[in-house]
Amino acid sequence: MKKYIALLLLMFSINQGIAQGTGCWLGDLTHILNNSHTSAFKNFVTRSGGFTEFKTLRELAASRGLNDAELFEFSTDLAKVVDPIDFIRKINANPNLIDAWKITSSVRSFNDFSRAIDFGGSIIIRANKKLNILGRVGPRNGTIGTMQIRTELIRKGVSEDEITLLLQGIPRSNDWTELSVSAMNRRYWDEINQPHIDEIIANGGDIRFIHDPRLDIHKYNLVADMPDSPFKQKCIAEGISKIRTFTNMEYQYLVGKGYTLQENGLMIKL
Q1: How far apart are the first and last CA of the chain?
Q2: Contacts of 39 (CB under 8 A, 6+ apart)
Q3: pLDDT digits over 71-90, tens only?
Q4: pTM beyond 0.70
Q5: Residues whose CB falls within 8 Å of the CB of residue 66, separated by 6 or more in sequence, listed in order
Q6: Given CB 3.0 to 4.6 Å as the disulfide criterion, which of 80, 103, 172, 242 pairs with 220?
Q7: CA-CA distances (angstroms) from residue 133 to 123, 236, 244?
């Protein structure tokens, strides 16, 4: 419920900014109104009444040095009441809550990588939350891959313990390479990839796709585009022209667990 309220507050702010012609103050989240929660938000606003006091909260947060990512995290942490108007009034009446939260919380934002991030905008790392990175190791569109973004985050001072990434590829032992391509991929999913996704669900951190798993370019690996290798020859011999990516399999698995992909790259379970 806390996260749902925070999401509603953010969507209202965006809606107000657009309506007033002042532009949106939430950068990477400007397109949130286009997602599946829009109708639910409008219904909630109708039931709850106006939110004119949210502008005051936004200005107060800015005066206390909170950036956009921190305000989102602050709202998520402290929205403990069902009525969002009551929540806004409590914070406006006691701005020291913002200062106390800043002492114990930290949100870091990264977007200056060697290559562009394909999907979701800036990488946000929250205090005491793991960042579970999902996506393509070697994307075909020239954007940064998962291994590279992990390496660069660590160079920027992010601890390895703050990030999870599936580092294990398909084993090269005979009991694997003798399998058909489809059987090999299925075994990898069953024994390695799915358990990894189950682990990141269990750790309670942020699940962040850096490539949009819904797009065809990230749904399939085209055999014709693969570099020459025994694996490519195996695909050709088996009459395979494209292979579903593990990125898309991970996405579909999480959807089946009740998660929804946001336009900021996060998989959220409301």
Answers
A1: 8
A2: none
A3: 666 655 544 334 555 666 67
A4: no
A5: 74, 98, 102
A6: 242
A7: 10, 31, 19
